[in-house]
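User: Could you check the structure of this?
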Amino acid sequence: MCSCRGLKVLVDLLDEDYTEQAELIVHALNGIGNVFELQSPTTKNDFCRMFIREGLLDPLSAALLNVMSNRGPVATDMKLKIIQILLVFSQVSQSDIHVRNALGTRKVIRRLLRSCELLEPECLVLMLKAVKHLSMNANLLDVLQNANAIEILIRILDEQSSGPHSTVGLQVFISVSY
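Assistant: Sure, the predicted structure tokens are below.
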């Protein structure tokens, strides 16, 4: 898949119009998720770098916001798949400067934070873990600050404090404390 420009094809499929090509986007997300699950000598860091070279993060973060406008089990599965992929990138960004620089753009960070404001608690916990990984890196703190991360996270904490989702509050607290 990697040698025949398969990763580029997956990225291009993800960049389709969600309202018209939802099925293609589902297949692209499944393909991208499967790449990270391969039993291969290629590390997740290397796959992240290859996907970055193909321009994955912009259409992936845009797809998350597009999918959020829909309801139902397919939309929920797609949200979870996107967030899981973003979580892998955020974990890898802690040790890989190329991944960190690509993920740490204002555009991508703002989309991730915007999604935090709209996600239901089950998905929100995973997204907050990704934000937490980003907030643990001193090089990304300025980007997070410029994207109003603290205000957004405090608002989420306030909204979730009255509900039964204490894990959300914990993730917000950890993210803000770095």
